[in-house]
Amino acid sequence: xxxxxxxxxxxxxxxxxxxxxxxxxxxxxxxxxxxxxxxxxxxxxxxxxxxxxxxxxxxxxxxxxxxxxxxxxxxxxxxxxxxxxxxxxxxxxxxxxxxxxxxxxxxxxxxxxxxxxxxxxxxxxxxxxxxxxxxxxxxxxxxxxxxxxxxxxxxxxxxxxxxxxxxxxxxxxxxxxxxxxxxxxxxxxxxxxxxxxxxxxxxxxxxxxxxxxxxxxxxxxxxxxxxxxxxxxxxxxxxxxxxxxxxxxxxxxxxxxxxxxxxxxxxxxxxxxxxxxxxxxxxxxxxxxxxxxxxxxxxxxxxxxxxxxxxxxxxxxxxxxxxxxxxxxxxxxxxxxxxxxxxxxxxxxxxxxxxxxxxxxxxxxxxxxxxxxxxxxxxxxxxxxxxxxxxxxxxxxxxxxxxxxxxxxxxxxxxxxxxxxxxxxxxxxxxxxxxxxxxxxxxxxxxxxxxxxxxxxxxxxxxxxxxxxxxxxxxxxxxxxxxxxxxxxxx
Length: 491
Prior knowledge:
By secondary structure, the chain is mainly beta. Helix content is 10%, strand content 48%.
């Protein structure tokens, strides 16, 4: 509250003086400066997870439904050269499973069990400050420069949004939040406390951040900061007037995890990991390139993303890599504008837990669900070959169908899942032994997005993994089902 009062005083005392120099004429109404925001998301989730081994869980523990509501409310004050925004969020979850959080190696049976494991309440909810920041921009003599301080959301890879619709979709759905994101799929989400500097020009953009992530994701008490430092810089080459639609970016991220009570998840024995109380320090350097071009009756697209890591994984030396290669072809003038895409995501794993090196790619603090819509895997020690078909049979309706062939990158490493740190006690990633197997699952999924009204959207999703050897080594059944129905209203 002291922090919010301080920001309010800055706006109240500083904004009129800044505005008076640029606009000497007083505004006609206070409403010229104030905008209210409101959104509400209601979701019912239906879980039929991989069935636990006999004797390790109550009968039917892997099957459950739960309900959640996420309400956001905010106010934006706009003055020349300065914007103040404050947003609160209230999250409520009902009917979480109390019997689906099992001991290793099976762990939490689906997303409802993960919420329960964080808070240990079947019904839970809190209200907290989602965002509260000041942005200074448009200052004379510093065209294109903007500074944000406070609590805000950040999505790596989405520092700019292309004007071309296909390029913008690729960037939002296939590049952004791979490594850093607000975890918007979860009902709590996360934010970042700190600062962001943007220098934006017509053909390029440079964005730098220095932050501490908040708790959240599957942890309903999201007002506090994690003992984690995250900083980085990204340079983006935007669409060029004399070229087909392109987007090129290079980035650097630094992640330091100082949490003492969160047990690291890797392929070392548990007692060795318990004895390792050194911090995690990871440097990530990478780049991406996107393009869309006219080709025959349609449009062809291509995507390349690459990241390399070095640093310290506690007492181990860390070195890892990940890449993505994708391509597609769309027929925008044909009924439903069919868009067929194929791709391959691949990341390194660790082949020897005793050699003093940690070679598993670390996904940092992402929105993992964008790339794993049924969240039983992620982009760590994985190989994901996929085919994707997107149809738009009506201007208000989008249908997406995906098929994935999932394997482990290294069969001596773990089967990883999760989306990064959520509180001080839980590491944020799970790891299940592979049994020296590499075949994880064949996976099919379908989603339907309906824009009912301008402010009201419905979303339906269903995914079905056909678990292979890695899954069947741990669970009694390799088959699972996950789906949800969601309504979102935005004002």
